[in-house]
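queue> pop job 88
queue> type: inverse folding (structure -> sequence)
queue> payload:
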């Protein structure tokens, strides 16, 4: 699975919330049914956000599906990321890693992971949240 998009959600207090859209592909001849999703998101090699969803669905055989999972980012995670950019360097690329599990099915579900780079041309100073 790879991150297909990130949209802001309303947070509480010092936390930030996002809807992470994951594009999952199923290269198998059998569909993958799920009854829940768990997700961890790392940014630049550091734990950043986590979330769960009780949504249900199917990733069709030889097909794909976009799954949206709300995640929470703690104030500590934001501070750690900001301190990583405190030297004032221009940030042009941010690496991410996503891992989690589609829960359900006859074998308990399917684990997934993915990674990539987000381009921020011209962003200066700190990672833009």
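queue> result:
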């Amino acid at each position: 699975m790879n991150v297909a998009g990130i949209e802001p959600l309303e947070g509480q207090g010092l936390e930030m919330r996002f809807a992470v859209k994951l594009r999952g592909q199923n290269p198998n001849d059998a569909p993958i049914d799920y009854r829940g999703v768990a997700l961890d998101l790392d940014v630049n090699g550091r734990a950043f956000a986590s979330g769960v969803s009780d949504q249900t669905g199917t990733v069709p055989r030889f097909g794909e599906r976009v799954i949206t999972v709300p995640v929470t980012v703690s104030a500590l995670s934001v501070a750690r990321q900001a301190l990583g950019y405190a030297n004032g360097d221009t940030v042009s690329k941010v690496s991410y890693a996503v891992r989690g599990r589609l829960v359900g099915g006859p074998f308990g579900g399917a684990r997934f992971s993915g990674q990539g780079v987000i381009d921020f041309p011209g962003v200066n100073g700190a990672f833009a949240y």
